[in-house]
Amino acid sequence: MRLPGLSGLDLQRELVRTEAPIPIIFITGHGDIPMSVRAIKEGAVEFLAKPFRDQDLLDAIQHALEIDRAARQERSMVAEVRRRYESLTKREREVMKLVVSGLLNKQIAGELGSSEVTVKMHRGQVMRKMKAQSLVQLVRMAEKIGITSEAAPPTNEN
Questions:
Q1: pLDDT digits 0-9 by tens, 9-46
Q2: C-beta of residue 116 within 8 angstroms of C-beta of residue 106
Q3: CA–CA separation, 140 and 154 (whole Å)
Q4: Which of 71, 99, 96 is nearest to 85 (CA)?
Q5: How far apart are alpha carbons 99 and 80 in whole angstroms?
């Protein structure tokens, strides 16, 4: 809590602001309950007050590693889904957005001013390129990358 310059809480806030995805364990001899509550609310894995048992620190480190592993896997999966999404053509993105919003092929065709057969073709391409085995899986992928019926996510092309 009493680092030279920034406090531990200030450093944590800065790391969160810059989206530095590392788990944080606070160790302090000068902490209090409001500090610990604030640290945990802002994402700290643990807040250890000195003196503490060695096992408490080891447990906190193990927990932090588990959290970090899961977060890395999630970021990797989201990046892969985003890469797949960016491989879609503009029309396939439009179709995907309408499909995940719950419209039927006929409704999508009306919305886009194309034929139902063309929509089926684009929908098939979307499923193939996104590697989705079902509509439910496609909807989950869309949620992961922020596609809603309101707006599609930004791409590297924009």
A1: 888 888 888 887 889 999 998 888 998 999 999 889 99
A2: yes
A3: 18
A4: 96
A5: 20
